[in-house]
Amino acid sequence: MMRFALCAIAVFTGALLLAIPNMTRRRFLFGVAVPDSFRESPDGRHAIAGFRPALALVVLGSVCALLLASADVLNLLAPALVLAIP
Prior knowledge:
Blueprint: H1 2-23, E1 28-29, E2 32-33, H2 42-68, H3 71-84
Antiparallel strand pairs: 1-2
């Protein structure tokens, strides 16, 4: 049960992180002040397009690691995993 709860946390956190570029003010992209039109520029779209698949791979790797880990390892690392998930 704990395994699936940790997977749900990983997926939920990943979904929130995927939405961050659309949720922040236009002046900021990934915490960096940029010109207002930067998001619509080719460089801005390229930065966002590179961020999303990279994040998806991290979330997928986290879920796979959680599902494949033995119960002993999971019980030992669970407190740290909650803090480390994406």
